[in-house]
Amino acid sequence: MPDQAYSRRRKRRFDDEEALFARRDARRRLLPDDALDAVDGLPDGDRWSTWDQSSPAERGPRPCPDWLVTDLGATDTELGILKTGKEADVFLLRRAVPDTGRSCLLAAKRYRAAENRLFHRDVEYLDGRRVRESRDNRAMAKRTATGRAIIAQQWAKAELGALSTLLVAGVPVPYPVQVTGTELLLEFIGGPDGAAAPRLAETRPRGAELAGLWDQLVAALVTTASLGLAHGDLSAYNVLVHRGRAVLIDLPKVIDVIAHPRGPEFLDRDAANIARWFTARGLDGVAVPPGELGSLLRAEARV
Question: How far is CA 117 from the centre of its chain?
């Protein structure tokens, strides 16, 4: 008589293996070659929303603003270019939920990784920025293709972190939505029709309007310095004016003025650049004269 226990064991084992094989085979059938196609089943737009491709650490401060679309079924549509620069290009993007009318405009800042030099004199800004893998640090130092790609991602993440810190502290900056690789999505500063807010350098404020913008920037820079930070590349081209409000932009070069060996120099340079622009337009009668801004920022930063 056959051993029933042995037969049962063998039968169970065979059944399990058969079921396992069937599951594996089904998995292969369910994953065709184009299963990861970014536009598979896309109802409209250029791509699916990338919101779920960023970890919580790669997104802006919570809670998210009400205007931001975070639905996983949303799509992104590129509407045109807003700005070209040495280190990145900025595109206008609409993120929308199909068939609902819900949408928001975003600025997509895409850092370049292929150029021989991402930034003019980028070494002075990268000082102190390191990654965990020693081979990655070597690649960054040698500016290999891999190293340049890592640097580009660092710029994007550095700007996300700086904007998040400043936003929470009350500094007027765009809300940083998310970073994915070398792309940083930001709040679009402009009108609902896609018209971008002008840069300070493109405006011609006079009298009380000029003084008001100066006072706003002094307050923003003082708060930034009190956090131990400097913009690193401040000028009238890195400030937007939207509905009478001065908004700081372009912060990938943000400097830790305590840790960086030349931190105080960056504070002085930022102060001198912005003070020079206001002085040339006849600013006077303000609480903080342009010539005293650098000293004020140093005092706030305690350097």
Answer: 20
